[in-house]
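As noted in the main text, all predictions were made from sequence alone. Below is one such record, for ATP-dependent Zn protease.
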Amino acid sequence: MAHRSGTFAIGALLLTLLAGVGPALGLSPAIAAFAVVMGLGFFFFDRIFFQGRLLTLVAGLVQERQKGWRERVACHEAGHLLVAHRLGIAVEDYTLGAWQTFQRGYPGSGGVVLAVPARLDSDRIEAYCATWLAGGMAEQMDYGKSIGAEEDLQKIQLLLAAAQRSGIAPARTLRNRAERLARSLLVAEKDLHKKLTQQLLAGRDIEGCIQLLQAQQA
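Prediction:
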């Protein structure tokens, strides 16, 4: 309930501001009020029926208009896919764009879809953390910095928190080991990562990508 009341408060504030500055911008208070009501209506419709995926779709479509965006995303996801495969984690699917992600019913902004682990011991947590770290690392290697790793870092934090609560291993130790593991794999198979990136850009299905990885097993 807190997020709903907060949204109403923000909407009321926007309504007040738009009604106040509307005339200076050539907008009548009625038009400003209508715009706010429509915006709030869209927000709640999306939250109730699509779990926020419509708003994510719109934001993603806008972001995709940036020059070089698709190439950068392919580089990022190829990093995940390469490291996951090498560490024995099944990758079930991937998406590169907002519309493709929305069509397939996946949450968030897309990317690789990993199989849910049957167990979470120290080795598995390290492998999954390395896989999620690999996307941002691949970006850093090719572009000098990472700009698309926020969701990955959230997943890593959840894994490390679970490990800490269970007494499996200290979170910092697991994180450091995962970073070294991901980096070593990406450096060792840099050329394969570039080939895989091109396959993702070409729209090759996940089965074809796995075949490429299997054919060039280091």
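Strands lie at 91-95, 111-114. The CA atoms of residues 130 and 182 lie 5 Å apart. These features were considered when defining construct boundaries for the mutagenesis experiments described in Section 2.9.
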